């Protein structure tokens, strides 16, 4: 049984806090370089239904965006997208592989 999305949101917030030094650095880069654009890509593993995972991947990306907005990054510089489990980096047949596929990716371009 998958946890409710409210529980997932809390876990996502905790993960972002644990990685805040990286996100803080990205916020500084984005603020200094107003021409830069950032895409935050949310990903899930293949456990669960498509709709659940699509929503979850979108929420992961939005949580990262919200953190950066709170650090003063211009909203116009950030795009979010959810990819559910369509772009795995690791084997989905193991717990470890699935855990590594639950992630956000950041792409900065100018």
**Quaternary form:** single chain
Largest sheet: 3 strands, mixed
Highest-level CATH class: Alpha Beta
Q: Compute the gyration radius: what is it?
A: 14 Å
pLDDT < 50 stretches: none
Helices, by number, come to: 4
* Strand order of the biggest β-sheet: 2-1-3
| First and last CA, distance | 42 Å
* CATH architecture term: 2-Layer Sandwich
Based on secondary structure, the structural category is alpha+beta
pLDDT averaged over residues = 85
- Say which CATH homologous superfamily is assigned: OmpA-like domain
Q: What is the number of domains?
A: 1
Short description:
It contains 4 helices and 3 strands.
Give the SSE map:
Elements: H1 5-18, H2 20-32, E1 37-43, H3 50-70, E2 78-82, H4 95-101, E3 103-109
Parallel strand pairs: 1-2
Antiparallel strand pairs: 1-3
Helix pairs in contact: 1-3, 2-3
Can you offer a commentary on this structure?
Helix content is 50%, strand content 17%. It has 110 residues and is an alpha+beta fold. It has a single domain, classed as 60s Ribosomal Protein L30, Chain: A (2-Layer Sandwich). A three-stranded mixed β-sheet has the order 2-1-3. Helix 1 packs across helix 3 and helix 2 (20-32) crosses helix 3. The radius of gyration is 14 Å and the shape is elongated. The termini are far apart. The model has no long low-confidence stretch (mean pLDDT 85).
What key attributes describe this structure?
three-stranded mixed sheet, 110 residues, alpha+beta, elongated, 4 helices, 60s Ribosomal Protein L30, Chain: A
């Amino acid at each position: 049984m998958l946890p409710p999305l409210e529980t997932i949101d809390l876990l996502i917030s905790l993960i972002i806090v644990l990685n805040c030094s990286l996100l803080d650095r990205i916020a500084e880069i984005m603020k200094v370089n107003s021409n830069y654009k950032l895409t935050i890509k949310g990903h899930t593993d293949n456990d669960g239904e498509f709709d659940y995972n699509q929503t979850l991947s979108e929420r992961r990306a939005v949580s990262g965006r919200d953190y950066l907005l709170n650090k003063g990054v211009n909203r116009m510089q950030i795009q979010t997208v959810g990819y559910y489990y369509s772009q795995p980096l690791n084997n989905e047949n193991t717990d470890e592989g699935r855990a590594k596929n639950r992630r956000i990716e950041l792409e900065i371009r100018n």
